[in-house]
Amino acid sequence: MNINLEHITVKSINEKIELVKQLKIQKKAVILAHHYQSMAIKEVADIIGDSLELSRKATQVASDLIIFCGVHFMAESAKLLSPKKRVYLPNLNAGCPMADMATREWVLEKKKEHPSAAVVSYVNTSAEVKAVSDICCTSSNAVKIVREISSNEIIFVPDQNLGSYVQKLVPSKTIHLWRGFCPTHHRIGAEAVMSMKAKYPEAKILIHPECKPEVVELADVVGSTAQIIKACEESDQTEFVIGTELGVVESLKKQFPSKRFYLLDEAMVCPNMKKTTLDDVINTLVNQTGEIIIEDEIQSSASQAIWAMLERS
Ligand code: SF4
Q1: Which residue has its alpha carbon closest to ligand 1 atom 8?
Q2: With pLDDT > 90 as the criterion, what percentage of the chain qualifies?
Q3: Does residue 2 have a pLDDT over 70?
Q4: Are residues 114 and 146 located together in one domain of the fold?
């Protein structure tokens, strides 16, 4: 007898989705999900966004219970901004390799080398790093933050590619780069863009600034997740090559079914962003596992760096 495993799996996923929806009502929880999460997780989310959007929304939601489906630094940022709320990361193994490339000790060392420099930290950093930073930034607002900050010398932590992009657009300032990178974006070379241009000559090329400078150079549009989505929405064109994580392509296909979206390279999948499953979310809602706790002395200085960013965004 043949058993349709696909059917059983789909049914099972649908049941889990329904269960999460019921549980979050019962528990009065709100689920925030980054665009890079799986479609199943985005299906149960109340709010889907990129880092900047989710940071803002975390401060605005009425619920005292936030389930953050993303990676560790994101849930930590939500906790920093809403210290009285309970914030949970359903899978505590979902970290960010780029965030792990910068440490508080390294930043303190660099500050000694460049005492006049302001430290601008990408939100993709730990709370400890934020606590020794002057201000945070996201890929949406990094250029604006660096341009407007009073210091002419910047220590930019940790993404060398975003930092290089900012340096190109703000040449009047001296930017000291850390050599961190996002493996998902950094592994892509210019040949991937050339190949997609040859395959889809009519398509618009949209690239995230976490990609290498030679890749960014070939883009029609450079932007954060939210900026890429907005550019696709506003464009009259119907074909787009998307140079960021797979989840953004999935979100775009769902949001704009009449347009066609192609992932720049099939390797652009963040394994950490895919770690969170519906089972993890159910477990967190039932058993309150994965609560984010931040020490008081870190909380105060790290949250100031994020608030400084939000006030300028
Ligand atoms: S996509 Fe890159 S920056 Fe984002 S969580 Fe994954 S490793 Fe970190």
Answers
A1: 96
A2: 92
A3: no
A4: yes
Q: Are residues 85 and 119 in the same domain?
A: no
Question: SS3 for 207?
Answer: strand
pLDDT value for 11: 63
- Check if 213 has its Cβ closer than 6 Å to any atom of ligand 1: no
Closest alpha carbon to 186 in 240, 265, 102, 123? 265
Q: Is residue 172 part of a domain?
A: yes
Q: Tokens for 296, please give them.
A: 């008081």
Q: Whose CA is nearest to atom 5 of ligand 1?
A: 96
Distance in angstroms (rounded) separating the CA atoms of residues 232 and 5: 36
Cβ–ligand 1 distance for 183 under 6 Å, the answer: yes
Q: Where are the alpha helices (DSSP H) in 218-312?
A: 225-234, 246-255, 278-287, 296-312
> Is residue 66 within 8 Å of 90, Cβ to Cβ?
no
Q: Token pair for residue 237?
A: 């064109």
Residue 13 tokens, joined: 């996923």
**Which residue range(s) make up the domain with 20?**
5-94+274-287
Rounded to 5 degrees, φ, ψ at 222 are -115, 130
Say whether 241 sits in a helix, a strand or coil.
strand
Within-domain flag for 169: yes
Is there an atom of ligand 1 within 6 Å of 125 CB?
A: no
pLDDT digits (tens, 9 = 90+) for 53-76: 887 898 899 999 999 999 999 999
Helix, strand, coil tally for the chain in percent (to 5): 50, 15, 35
pLDDT, one tens digit per residue, over 258-293 is 999 999 999 999 999 999 999 999 999 999 999 999
CA 160, CA 168: separation in Å to the nearest integer? Answer: 12
Cβ within 8 Å of residue 183, ≥6 positions away: 97, 98
Which pTM was predicted? Answer: 0.93
Beta carbons within 8 Å of 105's beta carbon, 6+ residues apart: none
